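Retro notes
What went well: the complex prediction finally ran end to end.
Inputs used:
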Amino acid sequence: MSRAVITGCGVVSALGVGARAFWDALGEGRAAVGPIRHFDASRFPTRVAGEVPVLRTDGAWLREYLGGRLPESILEDWEASGALRDRKIGFGWVAALEAWRQAGCGEDASDTWLSMALGLEQAFLEDFGPLLRKEGARTAINWAAEPGASLPRVRFRSRIDLSADGLVRMLGLSGPVVPHVSACAAGTLAVAHAASLIERGAATRVLCGASDSMVNPLGLGGMSRLGAPSPRAEPDACRPFDRRRDGLAIGEGAAMFVVESEERALARGARPLARILGWGSTQDAYKTTAPLPDGSMARKAMQQALRRAGLSARDIGYVNAHGTGTPLNDPAEARAIREVLGEVPVSSIKGAVGHLMAASGAIEIAACLLPFQRDCLPGTAHHRERDPECDIDVIGERPREARVEAVLSNSFGFGGQNATLILGRGT
Amino acid sequence: MRPVAVIAASAVTARGLGWRGLGRAVRAGDRAATLCKGLGGVLAAQVPSLPAAQDVEPRQLKLMSRGARLSCVAARSLFLESPALPREETGFFLGVGASGGTVKELEAMLDASFSEDRFDLGRFGTSGLGACNPLFAFQLMNNYTLCHAAIREGLRGPNAAIFSRGSGTVLALAEAHHAVAAGDCEVALGGGADSALHPVTWAELRREAGEGVVPGEGAALLALAAPEHARPLGFLERCEVHPGRQGLELALESARRSLQAMSPECVVLTATPNRREAARELATSACPEAIFEASTLFGESLAASAVLATVAALDLLQEGEVCRTAVLVMGPDGDVGLVGLAREVAS
């Protein structure tokens, strides 16, 4: 069996563009949730987010980061289609290219698979204008007018796997594309799937990770209607495991990785950033709108991951929690962590970058590389008051220095999907 | 790929509930399309009304897209027919389609958000959001096509939802296969559920799939277990995707080699109109005598197409006329999917 290792990592987040910017900021305990700038959210119930510091993810921005990797004609075509209105498309490309370059992948890597978690389609509500007609007092959509309507080629919404399609063309990938859509667990499942493909010998190299942005009118509005975000439009909107927590902060961004077999990586002189030791997934099968209060299926996902890794609880030196900062998630997760792992340092980066939804698991795996890079455990931005209901060792706002050999990351999705991944030090 | 046993199956299609008889119907070239009022009178393979025992409770419908409802019906049907199947530890890997919120809610939102024919962001924030049911958001979450069924049936094993416009569902079947083969769970469900009858999905499909595409909908599941299972319906021998997004020729060439190695006695194919000729040519290269087009019966059902064709192929095995079948999938995603089924495992 081949052991899977991560040899490249790329990140786009509210903390900046690039993995180094992300790790630097986490290492310094910085946070980046703030007022939304790329559209006018002043009349929305939620007005803050972990927004990537770029106003327009258009062709000009992509040219700056892609460095001519995507032929100009293709980029112009994408821009003209209207697809780049969906910010997650560009985020995914930029993060993937960074990971690809860091891993030292070249033309010979074209057989690479793509295992990518992607968020919901972004709705382009403005596209419906030419189709609306009044039927008495109500407005109806005249679908029959659609074929003739003068609209951009990508109409109504961006297809989920558009970002993946672009990567296939940009990097010349000829392996299968696996678009994971398991909500907030999807990013972790995409990386776990990559490791599984390597271990079972189905793939020699997998570009994996996630990209998402719900920092758009319907994404932000829909989440607000569900009551998930904090009602406070403040930079400390998300306070994971804090007694005063009152909801999440929506985030956006991407984290992508190159995963390959350890032997192959070492043979070509690549430096593994981490080894992927184990993973697990379960379903709460409880309610559509809430996690299992006792955290029992989250616990089981962690146990599965430990078993697959061949590790015991005391081998885990750090836990990157799902830690949404919502009243229901955090106590259930804390209970599960306490029962499985006992006393272990735990943090959540969602106070710093927000909840990246489908990409949350991936960016948290990127955060889990920090302990291996710099012997530093990320802190929990805005965690100030301990909650007795969350009886675990939560790392506060300042990062903690520590050398650890194995770390565990949890991701739990709306709908009850749970995923856990364990990483080990690469070198 | 080590074969695993197919120990139960279910389907909900334009012909109603059940998978038995679908192979015969596909072989006979049956059509199930009827005029669909919701899409302005186009021909569509639409699932008819369903028996209450399998269908979803009305109060749950507000939370569900059409795909989620179909997935729930297929899962309930599977467990009603095979009550001895385990649930708690069972894995679940599903190909799911695009978001599918109800048009009525969308219209209410747009009505409150447009001013003088222009979308008004401020109005959307203050009035548009409040004009629709907050549960609308759950209809938009693709993974709920899996989650509703898992919650309803108590499935707590390993799981993943994979977006599919054809080959994604073959990958979901492959993951279910691997979960069983690797011992991650005793039983895993694999399949897909989708509806191409949502107007936005239909608009996308019409642009991509070429003239003559018939939108369809449905869901189907296979329950997989170790090959030693006492009473298998058949064996899943192969699930593979030959990527065509970089160009169809390479995909067709590698799929041709695989298909010929499978030596199928018949090929059940599902393809969009603009890929049908290439699909038939590919199928002919391995099995010129017996090629059956599932899309004639099921329409283009996107995430459901591959597994609807697979249960039809399983039915042909069960009939006893063939020992080995292949399913060929060429959906709008541009990839080529192959699924191999056999009545017996080669010793």
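What we learned: The domain at 234-342 of chain B is CATH 3.40.47.10 (Peroxisomal Thiolase; Chain A, domain 1).
What to try next: split runs per interface for comparison.
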